[in-house]
Write a structure and sequence with these properties.
alpha+beta, 17 helices, single chain, D-Maltodextrin-Binding Protein, domain 2, 28 strands, Dipeptide-binding Protein, domain 3, globular, eight-stranded mixed β-sheet, about 600 residues
Amino acid sequence: MRDASGGYVQSRQLGARRPVRRGPLLGLALLVASAAGCSSNGTSPGVAEPGAVSGSTTTTEALRPGAVATTRMPVRGGVLSVGVLAAPLGLDPIVAAGDGAGGGDEMLAIYDSLLRYDPATGNYEPRLAQSLTSNADRTVWTITLRSGVLFSDGTVFDAEAVKFGLDRHRAGQPGAPACETLRACPSNAQASASSMAFVQAIDVTGPLTLNVTLTVPWTDFAWLLATEPGMIPSPTGVRAKCAAERAARPAECSFNRAPVGAGPFVITSFTPGESTFVSRNDRYWDGAPFLDGVRFSVSADAGADKSVDALTSGALDVAYLRDQRAVVAALGKRLPGRSIVLDAGATELMNMGAGGSMPATRYLRVRQAIAAAIDPSVVQERVTGSRAGSSADLFGTTRDLSPGAPGQVYDPERARALVAEAKSNGWNGKVRYLCDNSPSGQARAIAIETMLKAVDIEPVIDTTKDAAGVGNVLAVTKDFDLVCASLGFVADAASGKSDGSTLAALTRQLVSTSTTNAIGWQNSRVDAAVLALRAARTESERRQATQVIVEESVIDVPFVVTGAPQLYVAYTTKVRGVLATAGSRVLLDDAWLASTPSG
């Protein structure tokens, strides 16, 4: 709704967020509408009409497609076992990579978040923040916090604490406080830094209020507060465990292993590279969780067949499945869960000379030849056994972003002509292709190798590295021509809605000035389009921006999109009350384990 100044207001009645825990009398709830909920005619998003919620013990089975209400009474106790794809580097929000597969769930359990994104509706709900309002042009946002909240160390969760937490994600950027005062030296090197670069100032205006001033309009700013920057650490805990020295590094600080937040759980143990265990926080602001604790452990096979076996045997209660054959197997076993489509989640990135490197793919004709040689459906069939999910479209399944513009076109005859032309200009015909050593990575490499050979390109294949090793080459050494990767624009499979992670990924990976632009693509029209997408208020404006990005990618050929794979967050049938939020992250404060599985 609009306030008197024409600004954008996000607010909601409090006290009825989780009726299951509150007992038989349930209240009214107002969902916070996000900028993603703007209507296409340009009207302002606002607060949804309140709807009555009633029933003594009604809940919904955890994220199950087509789930129906059940009257089972929540059970207290038990430990939830979660299999994650990668071990986080720590549990400090400026150290862990975040998202559900790499530390995001663990940190949400410890810190909670200021807001929650609802992937089914595209709306935001208050959590530690009570409301979020903006001025008319979306350049100043006011956060009002919930009163009476304490960190698990007993200190007060207030506006100064939130400013401290947010500023740590700005560490090292112009206008940010000195990194020593934030215990964040020399700078924040995580993905959140690219988004926080748009923050000009953070000013405390009251015990529970603060203003965030941006350098540009940002319609979906709320997304930031549902992700790592919105996971606020105890300033007292950080200062007590981390030295105020420029030489001190957050990753080496003891807070990174024993963090303090205001979330529903507290840290019990953190074993680097292996597991994290959290226990119930009885002082949590919304009441103690049902579970005694949660154990997060790294899946034995990075979300493939062994993870499915662990679910069916009961060794895991929740698992992130990334391998596409494992996703198919889980669905075949009717395991409940949430499906997330990653538009451009299977992408062959081309090195255009990043970091001063001299790859064969710095030449346009070579990139054009590679793109014309690759048939996305062949790649998908080799990887998954089915051509379903193959796509050359950058934003293919994201309903609110897809412009309908075509991507690269498979044309082997054109590819051969381009190869011949490039060879006549001195190219030796060789291309180095790097992919990880997982079963799907090796299958993908075989498909690419076969198609490149068919058009007279000589591929040099490397599948000796794990995913972390491939990531190091991509981010640091730049010793590649072509690499299997993921741009990973998140869309909820059921709703087709995207969240702010797509804008963040575009900013981080494709904007010319980004320090994490790993392929060296420099395109001023794309840079302008990403800024336009940040300010866009209507679906039409968003699609105009993404159309420019698609068109320029077809001209410059910085990558070839081969598929939109699924990430499946799978559950056993005993799991209840898991709540999806931004990206693939989940909230576990209302999770519980039924004594018997559902049908």
